[in-house]
Design a protein that fits this description.
Number of strands of chain B: 7
Number of domains of chain B: 2
Radius of gyration of chain A: 25 Å
Structural class of chain A: mainly alpha
Number of helices of chain A: 12
Radius of gyration of chain B: 27 Å
Largest sheet of chain B: 7 strands, mixed
Oligomer: heterodimer
CATH superfamily of the largest domain in chain A: MetI-like
Largest sheet of chain A: 2 strands, antiparallel
Helix content of chain A: over 70%
Shape of chain B: globular
Order of helices and strands of chain A: HEEHHHHHHHHHHH
Strand content of chain B: 5-15%
CATH topology of the largest domain in chain A: MetI-like fold
CATH superfamily of the largest domain in chain B: Periplasmic binding protein-like II
Order of helices and strands of chain B: HEHEHEHHHEHHHHHEHEEHHHHHHH
CATH architecture of the largest domain in chain B: 3-Layer(aba) Sandwich
């Protein structure tokens, strides 16, 4: 009898749990899955919100094949890979270095941590505007400092290579603190035993770093890497404000190209296909990174 | 049993119910009577929104039943924001401020209210609007494929035309005359560039970004050398023409051969040109007149106030544009909305906003008003410019992909000017890309 009551109470509890989850499921369905499915649907159409009189034609995979052969989009993909590779690599190395510097107790640690974290909480658009002014050839502080140092007035935003260097630099400035904060948290949670054992074995500080710290930090580093790669690949605000994708198409990223296609050209179907191509690239990259670093998903 | 008592049992509740109903009804009626209509007006943030806001108190005083809420939107996101709201029929705005390029998809999508009936029934003096601005309200000045009835889709609010801006003091110093054509203009540019230390001859918008004006700076030259607009009425690209090539070569040589433009001119958008002139680092530019004159003549912002000359474009043809105020098709208050735009664009307010905020006058009577002439001594040249201004999009206004086309042209022009392609190849490239875009959009096979 008691078992029967318990079974009944369990049954009711489970049903109540489901009942309580329904609003969340409905909300998620509306705000997350519906737009995703809707944009997937329109990626198979030639359709523009600005040209309703041209109709909505089902073109199957035509938008996708156009994306993969569109020279402008292919240049944007190349630029985005270059940006992501250099920005994330430097951010990671600097992140580890700064985390190691800030690891341990010293006077003013909290101040440094807070001050260094400020760029992360600054709006990317504001960051873009400020750095644009700093980089402008004729009124910017940076070209002026180069000139003071005896160089020619450097045209950062009008040289294809230097413009890319400038956008990568700004991204590094803004997101390195994110990397070091996570890595510092990882460092603080490492056990002391492996270090003690390494010291007894006579390991140098470099050996301790390469053979103890790095392997133990691997899960944290991979998390930082994954988040930053996904984020950097979608870079928009900084480039849009700083260079607008120029000079020429030297800093055009997949996001600036997609936003231009969607909201300036109002080529809605094609833009949706572009967004899905980017989504697939990011998904494949993330999968390869997890596989490549031999990380179990439970460790992430 | 008392018969009255029985009646009371029925009558009292019924009477109470009737009283409650009457009270509720009267309260509802009063509430409705007291309710004010709210008009939401989307406007470009900054000068134009501030100007519109300044007339709202007086309008609300005249129309106590209407409340006007001006919503300022930054230019860079304005088009996509307004387009999204209008397409979704969200009812977020009753009135929108827009320019020609924004209006094309709005008219094509049947998202704006034709105003012909309102104009006919009201006392709006439509003939007083300058020609290029009146033309803009129909998107071509006549019936077109996009607007077969030639309906009017807005009232002109803020005009502008590009003019040739030069340093009067340097012209006097070197004995130069105001150029009548671009050959003379180039000579003047090179003279000052070579003679005046620290002053470059010319500045223009070299950036390829969405809000770059490279295309306008180019056409101010090309239109006066026999150049052609990017496409014709039959949607045929025509960038690669002798006039356009000559204009592109002029810009290419000013930058690369004569070094007559400042380093970094490739980063210049709209504002940087003004800064270079205001700081005295450059001697000439072509610029949207009324958007720049206030800052160039303000001694707190400009080192050259009082030293600037404003002339008609060498050759006489200039790019013109401007902003209209239109009523959104889904508004529930079209009459009230028309009352507001009529008020906003009447002669009194048009003059007031031109003098106080630097808005572009849209009425001939305002430009010829002594008060305006006193504030803007070049008013006559301005009127001529506005009456004969060329709208770059007017050739084929039914094309709803102009943002894409202008981007292609901007891209090709900056490639040609800065040597990534030869001027000839840049124009060939532009034609090819324009053709592809028009084909993709279904305009040509």
């Amino acid at each position: 009898m008691r078992d029967a009551v318990k079974r009944l109470s369990d049954f009711v509890e489970k049903r109540i749990a489901v009942l309580f989850m329904i609003p969340t499921i409905i909300t998620l369905g509306l705000v997350l899955f519906f737009p995703l499915l809707y944009s997937l649907t329109i990626s198979f159409y030639r359709w523009s919100v600005a040209r309703p009189f041209l109709g909505k034609t089902f073109v199957f995979f035509q938008n996708y094949s156009k994306a993969l052969t569109d020279p402008a989009f292919l240049v944007a993909i190349r630029n985005t890979f270059v940006f992501t590779f250099f920005a994330v690599a430097v951010e990671l190395i600097l992140g580890i270095a700064v985390a190691l510097l800030l690891h341990g107790n010293f006077k003013g640690k909290t101040f440094f941590q807070t001050a260094l974290f400020l760029p992360v909480v600054t709006t990317p658009v504001a960051v873009g505007i400020i750095w644009r002014i700093l980089f402008l050839t004729d009124v910017g502080l940076i070209p002026y400092l180069f000139q003071l140092a005896g160089f020619e007035r450097v045209t950062f935003l009008s040289s294809p290579v230097l413009a890319m260097v400038a956008v990568i630099f700004v991204d590094i400035w803004q997101t390195t603190p994110f990397a070091f904060t996570l890595i510092l948290a990882g460092l603080s949670s490492l056990p002391s035993e492996p270090y003690e054992a390494a010291m007894i074995d006579g390991a140098t500080s470099w050996q301790r770093f390469f053979y103890v710290t790095l392997p133990l930090l691997k899960p944290v580093i991979v998390v930082v890497l994954l988040i930053r790669v996904m984020d950097a690949f979608r870079v928009f605000d900084t480039i849009y404000i700083l260079t607008g994708g120029g000079p020429g198409s030297a800093t055009e990223s997949v996001s600036t190209f997609t936003v231009r296609t969607a909201f300036q050209y109002f080529n809605t179907g094609y833009a949706s296909a572009l967004a899905y191509v980017v989504f697939i690239i990011i998904a494949v990259m993330s999968y390869l990174m997890i596989k490549g670093f031999k990380i179990e998903t439970s460790e992430l | 049993m008392n018969k009255n008592a029985g009646n009371n049992r029925v009558v009292k509740p019924v009477a109470s119910l009737v009283m409650v109903m009457i009270l509720t009804l009267s309260l509802t009626v009063t509430a409705f009577a007291a309710a004010r209509v709210t008009l939401n007006v989307a406007m470009e943030a900054g000068r134009m929104a501030d100007a519109a806001k300044s007339v709202v108190p007086e309008f609300e005083k005249l129309h106590p039943d209407i409340k006007v809420n001006v919503v300022p939107l930054p230019y860079t996101t304005m088009q996509q924001k307004v387009m999204t709201e209008l397409t979704a029929k969200s009812g977020a705005y009753d009135i929108i401020e827009s320019h020609f390029l924004m209006n094309v998809p709005f008219v094509a999508g049947d998202l704006l209210l034709p105003l012909d009936k309102f104009i006919k029934e009201s006392n709006v003096d439509f003939g007083d609007f300058v020609k290029s601005m009146a033309d803009q309200t129909t998107l071509a000045g006549k019936a077109s494929k996009i607007n077969p009835k030639g309906s009017i889709y807005g009232l002109p609010y803020n005009s502008d035309v590009m003019m040739f801006i030069y340093r009067v003091d340097l012209y006097k110093k070197y004995g130069l005359g105001v150029p009548k054509d671009w050959r003379q203009a180039v000579n003047n540019i090179l003279k000052i560039n070579g003679s005046e230390k620290g002053v470059y001859g010319f500045v223009f918008s070299g950036a390829r970004t969405d809000n770059s004006h490279a295309i306008f700076d180019f056409y101010n030259i090309a239109l006066n050398l026999g150049g052609t607009l990017p496409i014709n009425d039959e949607y045929s690209p025509r960038m690669n023409t002798p006039g356009n090539l000559e204009a592109l070569k002029i810009l290419y040589e000013l930058v690369n051969k004569y070094k007559a433009t400042p380093p970094g001119v490739e980063e210049y958008r709209y504002a940087e040109k003004n800064t270079a002139i205001a700081q005295g680092r450059a001697a000439h530019m072509t610029q949207w007149m009324l958007s720049c004159v206030k800052s160039l003549e303000d001694p707190s912002e400009s080192r050259v106030s009082g030293k600037i000359g404003y002339a008609a474009m060498p050759g006489g043809k200039a790019i013109s544009g401007g902003w209209t105020v239109s009523i959104v098709g889904t508004t529930k208050h079209p009459k009230e909305a028309f009352e507001f735009i009529k008020f906003l664009t009447n002669k009194k307010n048009n003059l007031k906003l031109a003098l106080e905020f630097g808005n572009g006058p849209v009425r001939k009577s305002v430009i010829l008003d002594p008060e305006f002439k006193k504030a803007y001594p070049f008013a006559q040249a301005l009127l001529e410019g506005l009456e004969g201004g060329v709208n770059i999009f007017a050739a084929a206004p039914d094309v709803a992909v102009w943002p894409e086309l202008t981007d292609i042209v901007n891209f090709a022009l900056t490639d040609g000017i800065f040597g990534r392609l030869s001027p000839q190849d840049a124009l060939v490239q532009a034609d090819k890309k324009l053709k592809d875009a028009l084909h993709q959009a279904g305009y040509v096979k």
